[in-house]
Amino acid sequence: MDLGIAGRRAAVAASTRGLGFATAQALAAAGVQVAICGRQRDSVEQAAARIGAAAMPIVADVSTPEGATRFVEGAERVLGGIDILVVNVPGTPAGTFASTALEEYGPALQNHVLSGVAMCKAAVPGMQARGWGRVVAITSVGVRQPFPDLILSNTGRSGLTAFLKTLALEVAPDGVTVNSVQPGLHRTERLESWAGDRLPDMAAEVPAKAVGEPADLGAVVAFLCSEPARYVTGTAVPVDGGLYRGLL
């Protein structure tokens, strides 16, 4: 399927591995120039080499609004502009209500919400001016069906989802779409670290009876960035093998 985005320019945050890397790969395969980022120069350069000539490596820490802004500004410089923004941030520590201190919420909200807002602030006005743009955030199915032991992630990603829905309504007349994807259990280093020996049992509870691959999510993000998806905005799409059981 021709996604109609060859030659477009994308900034994909937190993209040296896992879901961010798979998304950058999918966009590059569709002919998009991609700026990727990571905290360590060697890891981001290795990731760019794996993707190929379409990838531009940038060293940036997007867990803070300042770092997120610097990443987008750097991507604009190396690409000459940004048509597609993929909002993605590092995960926050596991914990329950009882085990998580009040002081931990501030950094988590900065990471999950304010960093995403900062990226949009830096990238979306240019999209509006050009009359075309795509914003897709990688959040979590925990927004719909909270995961136990991940209270910071459940809370922060829900706040970002509310921001994105509001932004989508404001910028739709300008040719800019804003959506999010909600991964469930995908085979990443973070999932394997968090789940540990529980992973086989958790996979058995998924209706698809399997853990997803990062590429499964990357393909959906690439579609939401496409021309055929031009009339899709304000959505939050679970990509979870049926893990979320709700009707809405």
From TrEMBL:
Q: Which InterPro entries match?
A: NAD(P)-bd_dom_sf, SDR, SDR_fam
What domain of life does the native source organism fall in? Answer: Bacteria
Family named by the database record: Belongs to the short-chain dehydrogenases/reductases (SDR) family.
SUPFAM superfamilies referenced in this protein's UniProt entry, alphabetically: NAD(P)-binding Rossmann-fold domains (SSF51735)
The molecule here is called 3-oxoacyl-[acyl-carrier protein] reductase
Q: Which PANTHER family match?
A: 3-OXOACYL-(ACYL-CARRIER-PROTEIN) REDUCTASE, NADPH-DEPENDENT REDUCTASE BACG
